[in-house]
Amino acid sequence: MKTLKYFAFAFIATVALASCGDSATTTTATNADSVAAASAAAATFKVDVAASGLQWHGSKLAYGHTGVINITEGSLSLENGNITAGNFMVDMKSLKETGASDADAAAKLAVHLTSPDFFDAEKFPTSKFEITGSSAAKTDSTTHTIKGNLTIKDQTKNIEFPANVVVEGTNLTAKASFSINRNDWGVTYGSGLSGAIGDKVIGDNIDYKVTLKATKN
Fold this sequence. Notes:
Layout: E1 25-26, E2 30-31, E3 43-47, E4 53-60, E5 63-79, E6 82-97, H1 103-113, E7 126-136, E8 144-152, E9 155-168, E10 171-181, H2 192-197, E11 205-216
Parallel strand pairs: 1-10
Antiparallel strand pairs: 2-9, 3-5, 3-11, 4-5, 4-11, 5-6, 6-7, 7-8, 8-9, 9-10, 10-11
């Protein structure tokens, strides 16, 4: 296989969560935790997948690639102003690059990223995020700290990141930016020494910007 000049990563969305700014919080992956369950008193908000989105950014040496992945479903539970539970699903086969001026190169990159080298979308077509905990964390740009299980290629790890959640009547919008180390989910192509030997060094971190817009049921 000839030397690749592309990189990217795809991820999984988070329920109405999008960029809280240009800098992504670097997460530390830990063991999966118990998924949070909403109480009977919680209000449920269904994610509008057409209005929501997940953006990814990955890099190789001096350049990078940006793209999107489709969110297919999701919901958030709200009680006393706090996110108590929620989840969202991502269609890994929908991964594509959006920042390239060369359409053919973008298409080739998407094929490679969905191949067994990276996300093996035929075998693992869905990624997901499930909230395991949430706490109020008011700053100038965020309202909550979200903890949750992120599943990619059937490997589940718990991560934590800040989010901005806004509720206006029956509408809820959540936004977040975070970065993961793809090796923690078994996506190791071109990483570290193996990449250097093959002249395919690809950055380990993948940045995500997620925006979830939801409506109260």
